[in-house]
TrEMBL record:
Keyword annotations of the record: Dioxygenase, Iron, Metal-binding, Oxidoreductase
GO molecular function, one term: broad specificity oxidative DNA demethylase activity
Keyword Oxidoreductase assigned: yes
Domain Fe2OG dioxygenase: residue ranges: 104-207
Keyword Cytoplasm found: no
Record's GO cellular component terms: cytoplasm
Protein name: Alpha-ketoglutarate-dependent dioxygenase AlkB
Pfam families for this protein: 2OG-FeII_Oxy_2 (PF13532)
Essential cofactor(s): Fe(2+)
Cofactor annotation remark: Binds 1 Fe(2+) ion per subunit.
């Protein structure tokens, strides 16, 4: 369903098997070459969410190939199978065959939330491309807050994101403020391979070249 123009939520889009495969892949990325970490913020804080990146390494407010804030290693390659998954996501969300075929995400941020983790309201503006962001959720259900492009406050809409859900943010919704105010601890189905917590994968186009 379309939450706002360009913001499409497809609940239960991933099969249980796809969820298990993504959990396995994300577990491997979480251990290296750049281990998952609580991202340090410029003003000295650390995020409660833990993040590991593939393709390009994100830290506020830039993307680099190497993780100079972690261990200096180059991040893992962005696999072709994930490009294909991103294209299928765009096709199912928008029904735009040509737009989907042209979509070539080159980075993903993989966020892990424990029961206490939150993500404050923010815009994603570190990419030099306005191509859509594809979001996949696995594990615990959360409250996802979708706001507006002008302020980090009201008006906003709270929706629940559950395991297997796809969300695509493009067009007029690409630069909306959004956040995760609450994770419902203990709601994950262990059959996905994630006994507790929430995993979110966001594919993006950085617009960068080496
Ligand atoms: C709307 N992640 O990594 S996913 C992020 O659940 C981020 O981990 C959240 O916000 C999470 O930056 C939300 C949904 C999402 C991701 C990116 C967006 C919504 C977006 C970019 C633009 C607009
Ligand atoms: Fe975001």
């Amino acid at each position: 369903m379309e939450i706002s123009p360009g913001a499409v939520h497809l609940p239960g889009w991933l099969t249980p098997e796809q969820q298990r495969e993504l959990v396995t892949a994300c577990r491997a990325w979480a251990t290296g070459p750049v281990p998952i970490r609580h991202t340090r913020l410029p003003r000295g804080g650390v995020m409660s969410v833990q993040t590991v990146c593939i393709g390009w390494h994100w830290q506020p407010y830039k993307y680099t190939r190497t993780a100079d804030d972690v261990n200096g290693e180059r991040v893992a390659e962005f696999p072709d199978w994930m490009v294909q998954l991103g294209r299928r996501a765009l096709l199912d969300a928008y029904g735009d065959t040509e737009g989907a075929a042209a979509y070539t995400p080159d980075t993903a941020l993989i966020n892990f939330y424990d029961g206490q983790a939150k993500l404050g309201m923010h815009q994603d503006k570190d990419e030099r491309s306005s191509a859509p962001v594809v979001s996949l959720s696995i594990g615990d259900t959360c409250v996802f807050r979708v706001g507006n492009t002008e302020t980090r406050t009201k008006p906003y809409t709270d929706i629940e994101l559950a395991s297997g859900d796809l969300f695509v943010f493009g067009g007029p919704s690409r630069y909306v403020y959004h956040g995760v105010p609450k994770v419902y601890e203990g709601t994950a189905d262990p059959a996905t391979g994630l006994a507790s917590g929430r995993l979110n994968i966001t594919m993006r186009v950085t617009g960068l070249t080496d």
